[in-house]
Design goal:
five-stranded mixed sheet, 295 residues, alpha+beta, single chain, two-stranded antiparallel ribbon, 42% helix
């Protein structure tokens, strides 16, 4: 990101987002968006019980069904505060005289609209069609990269290691943006100590894999998208459960981001895997490149 540029356009439809400045005025936008995940856990105790009585035989299909039911219930909790955040941003925008601040209210409104669409599809997955289109994975990486750098403008280096030969494929662009954003944001938050020391590194790496077995289906070609950080690693006690709802290794974390990301990737017939040791955590997103309908 060029620090001399006043604006950077994330795509042809997105509103302009200002490059992060020393004053850190983007913080109020980040704070508002973080409120989206502030779902009181007491409101979902009945859903948590579903996880406790889920089959313990390790069957991915059974756990996935439980996850989807819980996520739909959580979507109901998110929907109301999401509308309130958008409305508050609109009212604030009307009263602002400083045009540079209006850019940040536009960030909130634009992201709230995008998240509203995702919530609607979680609430009614069978009634609302997937928004299929041609997806360029590197355009998605660049969008997420810029959003991460807006939130973490100092102390974090985002490295791009792209394979330019990866073709475009059919997918739900908004779901894939949210999946990658959740994974990358989770990684950036784990780098808090290194960010303070200006030694934090987040790497987006894309490669093509051949003859990949996903579930019981073999695919000739698949995308491998790695999100690699040099943080402390995932605690041993939650390594096997990081994709379950409400499981988090961070104080104040919602435990929803990775579960949602896995759900969205699975709807593209793919999956997310994780390999983590102290000093290197690698989240690998694998998605078949053959054209086809989403799950």
């Amino acid at each position: 990101m060029n620090s001399n540029d006043k604006f950077t356009h994330l795509d042809t439809l997105a509103l302009p987002i200002a490059v992060a400045e020393e004053s850190g005025r983007i913080a109020f936008a980040n704070g508002a968006l973080e409120a989206l995940m502030g779902v009181p856990r007491a409101r979902i105790q009945s859903d948590w019980l579903l996880l406790e009585i889920a089959p313990a035989d390790g069957k991915a299909a059974d756990q996935n069904a439980v996850n989807k039911e819980l996520l739909r219930n959580l979507a109901h909790e998110i929907k109301n505060p999401l509308g309130g955040i958008r409305g508050a941003a609109q009212l604030l925008q009307m009263d602002l005289s400083d045009k540079s601040l209006i850019e940040y209210t536009q960030v909130i409104i634009h992201e709230a609209d995008r998240l509203q669409s995702l919530v609607d599809r979680l609430l009614a997955p069978h009634r609302q069609p997937h928004i299929l289109g041609t997806v360029n994975i590197h355009e998605i990486c660049e969008r997420v990269r810029q959003l991460i750098l807006v939130e973490f403008p100092h102390g974090l280096t985002v490295v791009r290691d792209y394979d330019a030969s990866i073709p475009e494929f059919q997918g739900d662009r908004e779901q894939l943006i949210q999946a990658l954003l959740n994974v990358a944001h989770n990684a950036a938050q784990a780098l808090e100590e290194r960010i303070q020391n200006a030694t934090a590194t987040l790497t987006f790496k894309t490669r093509i894999a051949r003859q990949v077995l996903l579930g019981k289906v073999r695919h000739k070609l698949a995308l491998q998208l790695h999100v690699i950080d040099n943080g402390p690693g995932i605690p041993e006690e939650i390594k096997d459960r990081i994709f379950f709802p409400l499981v988090t290794g961070r104080a104040g974390g919602s435990g929803l981001g990775l579960s949602l990301a896995q759900n969205f990737v699975q709807q593209h017939a793919g999956l997310i895997e994780c390999d983590s040791v102290p000093g290197r955590t690698d989240f690998k997103i694998v998605i078949p490149l053959q054209a086809g309908s989403l799950a």
